[in-house]
Amino acid sequence: MSNYAESPKVKVGLEIHRQLDTRHKLFCACPTDLAESDPEEKFLRRLRPTQSELGQVDEAALFEFHRERSVMYESDHQTTCLVELDEEPPARLNDEAVEVCLSAALLMKADPVDEIHAMRKIVIDGSNTTGFQRTCVVALDGMLKVDGKNIPIQQISLEEDAARKTGQTRDVVGYRIDRLGIPLIEVTTAPVLESPDEVEKVALAIGTVLRATRKVKRGIGSVRQDLNVSIPDGALIELKGVQELEILNKAVEFEISRQQRLLEIRDELRRRGVQPDIIERKYTDLTDLFVKSKAKVLQGALTRGGIVLGLKLPRFGGLVGKELAPGLRLGTEMSSHAVFWAGVGGIFHSDELPSYGITEEEVRRTNERLDTDPQDAFVLVADEISRANEALDAVVDRAIDALKGVPEETRTAMPDGTSRYMRPRPGAARMYPETDVPPTPVTDELIRKLTATLPETAEAVSKRLMEKHGLNQKLAKQLVDSDYLELFEQITATSKVQASFVATILTETCKSLQREGVPITSVSESKVKAIFGLVDEGSVTKEAVADLLKWQARNLDSDTREGVKELGIKMLSEEELERVIERHIENNKKLIQERGQSAFSSLMGSVMSEVRGSTDAQNVSEKLKQRLTQEVKG
Ligand SMILES: [Zn+2]
Q1: Which residues, in sequence order, are bridge partners of residue 351?
Q2: Phi then psi for 592, rounded to 5 degrees?
Q3: Which end of the chain, C or N, has fewer beta carbons within 10 A?
Q4: SS3 of 499, please?
């Protein structure tokens, strides 16, 4: 069921970033694994781009820079060197990463560039110690066939990953720099995708190509997807950081719905005759109304010496609270703008009040003081005086934009598929050459070598899995589309566990565990192998595998054998099993008399619910059948 009206002219472009599993980072010899220990060093910095760089910084970046934030970097010797600390120039581009990227490009029929040049992309949120991210175009103009349709791949690039955020207070942002410099491959499609489903299919197909190189990382955080979405009469919206493939189509759907609802709000405002000039920048000090308020946010601000300011939004009544996507309202958008531009905690709007400890009486008196009509809305903000004023300026700006429809902007994807305002869309001049890194030539010889050793395509792998392991087509395809193909091959190469069982666990079972909210992708490959090892040596049955995986996901660092103990998984001896069967036969005499052999499935169900995980289902079935036949014959 879709949340939006079908619109034939939706245009979506997809940008997939995936970490490469190379031995070293992109510009130094550090490993590409994240730190497992606590940081050894911390250092505080304030980013200061040079004047020449500032000349190229766009408005949004400059704004963030002026926000006077310091950055606390955390590092350790295992995962970082002087390059990440920006105390030593970068080494030349990592050859292994270049080759992986070129192989993927060739699989997508793209044209490699003659020479790879590193460029600097300005980033002033502190996620790069240098103040920029290094990025290199490796190939252009590829093509990927998805469901019979040719999807143009505009560009394939190599980038360095940014540091990962560890926290944020009003004045300090924290980053762990272990991730900084891990190679990322970036694949950009042309903005030609037409539906949420198509976006998901294309993402899946790109993922399959990247995995074919056998040199990409998997699991949470290894893939990030950016989208740009536009609808007719809407605007081009950049949507950053969709983490999971599963919510990609939701993210597109919610963005379409958000733009459509904003257009409806625009039309309604026009019907109500709202013009930009009737929204006055007149802010009323309402502090005296709220000195005794029970609202915690207001109280907190007042104790810190702040004020409560009110703003009337003429004829916006009912529209500020209108839902744009689940949990997202025009009021949420106004609030995000106030947070971004003024650094306040948020705003309250009349469509959501009384609530949050603000009483009906306080709402009534606010309306009275702001001289509102029933069709009007109002916004409240509490903070120190200059911040509160800036916050309401940002709200007025957003309200005026509502009259135009959908403002162009960059948004952050949330885990539920909705998004929040992040910043204005950056201008074009965000890149300039990285002079510390020499260009890397892409020779014909290298391309010939890579072309001759291109990885197996997804179809070829599927075919091989069906032939060698006897998997059916559906299971083979699921495995190729999953992150676990390599793990499957390792497990089946080293154990006698049935291949189709391993494949089912790694695809269907893992997927359904994930849907249940079990963090299954965090379980390390070695732990998964250990679980199958227990099956292989006969210590646990196949029936216990799902439970053990679930247990392991909640006890990531514990030994799998502890799980066997804790879950009370033990193998029944043949005699013990026979005793259990005997008991069930005794307890169901009447049923057996009535139904004869057909009592089997009911008995099998009740026996299995008692012994599942501690004996093989096949064995139970055989023994029970035998015993039942004996019983029926009397
Ligand atoms: Zn390093």
Answers
A1: none
A2: -65, -40
A3: N
A4: helix
Around Cβ 496, how many Cβ atoms within 10 Å?
9
Q: Say how many C-beta atoms besides its own lie within 10 A of residue 317's C-beta.
A: 18
Ligand 1 centroid to residue 79 C-alpha, Å = 7
Q: 41: CA distance to ligand 1 center in Å?
A: 15
CA of 527 to the centre of ligand 1 (A): 29
Q: What's the CA-to-centroid distance between 179 and ligand 1, angstroms? A: 10
Centroid of ligand 1 to alpha carbon of 445 (angstroms): 30
Instruction: Give the Cα separation of 9 and 232 in Å (integer).
Output: 6
CA of residue 182 to ligand 1 center, whole Å:
9
Whole-number Å distance, alpha carbon 439 to ligand 1 midpoint, is 20
Give the closest residue to 109 by CA, choosing from 459, 447, 539: 447
* Torsion 442-446-447-453 (CA) sign: negative
Ligand 1 centroid distance, CA of 28 (Å): 5
C-alpha of residue 169 to centroid of ligand 1, in Å: 28
Q: Output the six-digit token pair for 468.
A: 């060698």
Q: Which of 81-95, 173-187, 290-304, 473-487 has the lowest mean pLDDT?
A: 473-487
- Return d(Cα 309, Cα 290) in angstroms, integer: 10
% residues pLDDT > 90 (the chain) = 69
Burial class (CB in 10 A: 0-12, 13-18, 19+), 563: buried
Mean pLDDT of the chain: 90
| 302 phi/psi in degrees, rounded to 5 | -65, -40
Confidence band, pLDDT 50/70/90 cuts, at residue 537:
confident
Is it the case that residue 51 has pLDDT exceeding 50? no
Contact at 8 Å (CB) between 348 and 356? yes
In angstroms, what is the span from residue 194 Cα to ligand 1's centroid? 41
- Cα→Cα distances 469→32, 455, 463, 465, 472, Å: 33, 20, 10, 5, 9
If one counts every other C-beta atom within 10 angstroms of the C-beta of residue 565, the result is 10
Integer Cα distance of 450 and 7 in angstroms:
43
How far, in Å, from the CA of 48 to the mean position of ligand 1? 22
Angstrom CA distances, 69 to 63, 73, 172, 350, stand at 11, 13, 6, 32
Q: What is the pairing mode between strands 377-383 and 284-285?
A: unpaired
pLDDT in tens, 175-196: 999 999 999 999 999 999 999 9
Q: Residue 443's pLDDT is what?
A: 96
Helix (H) or strand (E) holding 330: helix 330-342
Q: How does residue 321 score in pLDDT terms, banded at 50, 70 and 90?
A: very high
Render pLDDT for 60-101 as a digit per residue (tens, 0 to 9): 555 655 566 789 999 999 999 999 999 999 999 999 999 999
* pLDDT value at 429 more than 60: no
How far is the C-alpha of 19 from the C-alpha of 186, rounded, in Å? 9
Read off the pTM. Answer: 0.78
Radius of gyration of the chain (CA): 30
Beta carbons of 243 and 219 less than 8 angstroms apart: no
Tokens of 26: 């992109």
CA–centroid distance, 159 to ligand 1, in Å, is 15
Q: Degrees (nearest 5) of the Cα angle 41, 47, 50?
A: 135
* Centre of ligand 1 from the C-alpha of residue 496, in Å: 42
Q: How far is the CA of 433 from the centre of ligand 1 (A)?
A: 21
Give φ, ψ of 229 to 5 degrees: -125, 130
Neighbours of ion ligand 1 (CB under 5 A): 28, 30, 81, 83-84
